[in-house]
Amino acid sequence: MTDQSTPVPEWARNRVHTRRTYVALALFGALGLFWLWHLARSLADSRFVDGAFYMCASATCAAVLWASVLVLKNRARSIAAPGTADSVPGGVRFSTSRGLRVAYRMAMTFIAISSGLFAVGTWLGQFDFSMSSGQKLILPLAAAAVASYAVGALTWFAAGFLRYPGVEVSPDGLSTNGFRLKQTVTWDDVADIIPLADGKNPEIDVVLKDRARAGVDIFYRGPFAPAYLQAQRSVRITADLFASGALPLLDFLDYYASSPDDRAELADGRALRRLASMGQPAADR
Q1: How far is it, in rounded angstroms, from Cα 118 to Cα 60?
Q2: 37-89 tens-digit pLDDT
Q3: 252-255 contact pairs (CB < 8 A, 24+)
């Protein structure tokens, strides 16, 4: 189990990314205030079409900031907060928080509306933005593409082709939902649980034994669908998307991967009590 008093060495690089993220979020917040200032001016001048665009643009910034703050809190959490994992029939489920799901849907909705308003309004001459002829040609097309992407993502979520991440752990093994697929492995096929930091987010790698393969169910159908064979061999979890926190989730999976005698706890609720005690001082147990 990870020593809670010592940061995970493999995730040390993520702390550098986190500091850069704070700077980016500050700039993004300034952009949101900029849109709000223009919203106030447009309403004062009775330019209501402009105001609709500025309102949606500022709401997009607010939703992105909200989602980012939630992810950063998950990344920094060393003790699982109550209610961040649920007991389900036969096991324990970790889910993305309701707030993160709402923030994501809000961000995609306002991105679709603001980008669509900008594209259509520019083509119809409803906006009086200062742009060169080249910008008037390219920017509305780019905005229409962004709006189409956001509408497509929301539609794919509604249809079940994309799903919010989740992890279910049972006495038999674990299953992980990514946005585009579900992977299932048995404990007998798990060689190790290790932290990784290949990207900007802390990840948990479920290392499989030689010749072991994960069961795969691909939700997404399209040109960017994940490769089935590759998904069988690599099981990774983006840890800071979960309300439990990245470190508690890592410790929880690592504990039950290395403690087969205690896996029965996963089916009767005792595992949730163990999760709540992880990271607590010994005197508090």
Answers
A1: 14
A2: 999 998 998 888 888 999 999 999 999 999 999 988 888 888 888 888 998 89
A3: 252/80, 252/85, 252/169, 252/278, 253/167, 253/169, 253/174, 253/193, 253/204, 253/206, 254/1, 254/2, 254/193, 255/1
